[in-house]
Design goal:
The protein is α+β, with helices and mostly antiparallel strands. The chain contains two helices and nine strands, in the order ββββαβββββα. A hairpin with a 7-residue loop joins strand 2 and strand 3. The longest helix has 12 residues.
Length: about 130
């Protein structure tokens, strides 16, 4: 969850043009909810997980009394919060998200096995 202020930086990848990132312009009073891959799986792709990144805030230029120019970025604070079920929990697509036009996209999986699959994918090719 992101309660945005006027400090920009969140960008979401355009699913129609991979590699292109679009700015999530701050909207006063809005809350951005970034769902994860598990929610995408449970909803049978109804709510896709977004690839995202955070860039530096815009540079602010100021001058002190000694005519020294300072170029700084604003402070930004992030506190990520993740939740997950117990490892032996079976994960499956919600029945209400599966029909003849939207066949099941994912097999049932035990959460601990899913976590192992995700970790293997995330660190593929390293070390």
């Amino acid at each position: 969850m992101l309660f945005q202020d006027d400090c920009e930086g969140l960008e979401l990848e355009n699913p129609k043009n991979p590699g292109e990132f679009l700015s999530a312009k701050p909207v006063p009073g809005a809350c951005v909810v970034n769902i994860g891959d598990m929610f995408e799986r449970i909803t049978n792709d109804t709510f896709p997980s977004a690839t995202h990144r955070v860039t530096l805030p815009p540079v602010q230029v100021s001058q002190d009394n000694g005519s020294n120019i300072k170029r700084l970025t604003r402070a930004r604070y992030s506190i990520p919060y993740f939740v997950a079920p117990d490892g032996d929990t079976m994960i499956h697509c919600l029945p209400s998200r599966v029909d003849k036009d939207h066949p099941r996209a994912y097999e049932d999986v035990k959460f601990s096995d899913y976590g192992g699959m995700r970790s293997k994918y995330q660190y593929q090719g390293e070390g």
